[in-house]
Amino acid sequence: MYPTKIAEGIYDVGVNDWNIRDFHGYLTPTGTTYNSFLIIDEKIALIDTVKKEFSNQLIKNITDIVPLEKIDYVISNHTEMDHSGGLPAIMHRVGKDKPLYCSKMGQKNLAMHYRNDWNYHAVENGEELDLGKRQLVFLEARMLHWPDSMLTYEKKDKILFSSDAFGQHYAGFEKFDDQLDREILLHHSKKYFANIVLLYAGQVQKLLKTVNDMGLTFNMICPDHGMIWRENPNLIIDAYDKWSQPIFSKKAVVVYDTMWQSTKMMAEQICEGIVAEGVNVRPMNIRTNHRSDIMTELLEASAIVVGSPTLNNNVYPTVSDFLTYMKGLRPQNKLAACFGSYGWNGASIKILNSELASMKFNMIDNTGLKIQYVPDKKGLNACFEYGQTIGKAICNRMNN
């Protein structure tokens, strides 16, 4: 990927990672980008680097514009190694005496990552750096999504370099939001939020309040992954505001796996019962739907319903995997219910109830629905009625 001019004197010198397919357990079928930004002024600054394996491409992109030794400041908004992995190669060529701007926690983290005696400059929240015609403002964004995270705001052109906020895992020759279909872009953005940012929804609201209190406006938002927002940066701001607040929609996600198709039969009838109450439902077999896609569907749903057969007195391994992943992301304000088939021990239902309750979901009932072996007509009717109970609970929440 060649350098891209995004404003007068400002370039994206980052790289595409076309081949990555797993990012912290998150399916990335289109790859991702590691964006890095070069600002040419009376002083020259580089904001963030790239994953270590792409350091040579980053260096080439920079030197197509300016010799590395001409860089005056290096800024690390976030120390995670997909954005800091290129720092050793950059600092070696820029000169380790050049200031490396980062948050206070960033200094600690970088020192522990790379064990180098770089010339760290740990910034205060709101501190400014004068480049000549441009001034940069550093904004603390702790736990969005690491303790070291900060944002850099360029005042002249009102550009926010937003680190891991407002991005997507998407690699393409498109660089800007107006070059990609809006629905596709928002889908990738929602998936990113649901699988990376959801746990830190409270921090998102704090950041948005800080931005509002400071009266900041944005002509462009430049995240470290994916598209640059230049046509409508408020679109992603509004989306983050929505996604980071309690969402109550007439939608349920039914997540399950099945051993001999009995739990699948139950899931299908439960879905029919939910739909009968006028509620949208998304059935998702864990074998054919990746955990990160399930979380994306769950983001704007009011309820999650989890089904598992009993295997060796436990839940099915794929269901356990999903529960562990979901627990780490802590979706809030969801209704929940569970179901499953069993042979001689229905332990999976008790375990599912306990797991969902421990995640602070509002349990629709405290027992769940279990059926021994293959559900007969009576059992299928019970599943349909259970679905109706779930649908009514969702409607009651919507009406209150």
Q: What is the 3D shape?
A: elongated
**What does the average pLDDT come to?**
94
Instruction: Count the beta strands.
Output: 24
CATH class of the largest domain: Alpha Beta
- Estimate the strand proportion: 15-25%
Task: Give the distance, in angstroms, between the N- and C-terminal Cα atoms.
Answer: 52 Å
- Helix segment tally: 12
* Main beta sheet: 7 strands, mixed
CATH topology of the largest domain: Metallo-beta-lactamase, Chain A
What is shown here, in short?
With 400 residues, the chain is an alpha/beta fold. It has twelve helices and 24 strands.
Note down, in words, how this protein is organized.
α6 crosses α7 and α8 crosses α12. The chain is α/β, with parallel strands linked by helices and 400 residues long. A hairpin with a 2-residue loop joins β4 and β5. The protein is 36% helix and 24% strand. The protein starts with a strand and ends with a helix. The chain folds into 2 domains: 240 residues, Ribonuclease Z/Hydroxyacylglutathione hydrolase-like (Metallo-beta-lactamase, Chain A, 4-Layer Sandwich), CATH 3.60.15; 144 residues, Flavodoxin domain (Rossmann fold), CATH 3.40.50.360. It has 12 helices and 24 strands.
Secondary-structure map with pairings?
Elements: E1 4-7, E2 10-12, E3 15-17, E4 22-23, E5 26-27, E6 32-34, E7 37-40, E8 44-47, H1 55-63, E9 73-75, H2 81-84, H3 87-94, E10 99-102, H4 104-114, E11 119-122, E12 128-130, E13 135-140, E14 150-154, E15 159-163, H5 182-197, H6 201-214, E16 220-223, H7 233-243, E17 251-256, H8 262-276, E18 280-285, H9 291-298, E19 303-307, E20 310-311, E21 314-315, H10 317-329, E22 335-342, H11 347-358, E23 362-363, E24 369-372, H12 377-399
Helix pairs in contact: 5-7, 5-9, 6-7, 8-12
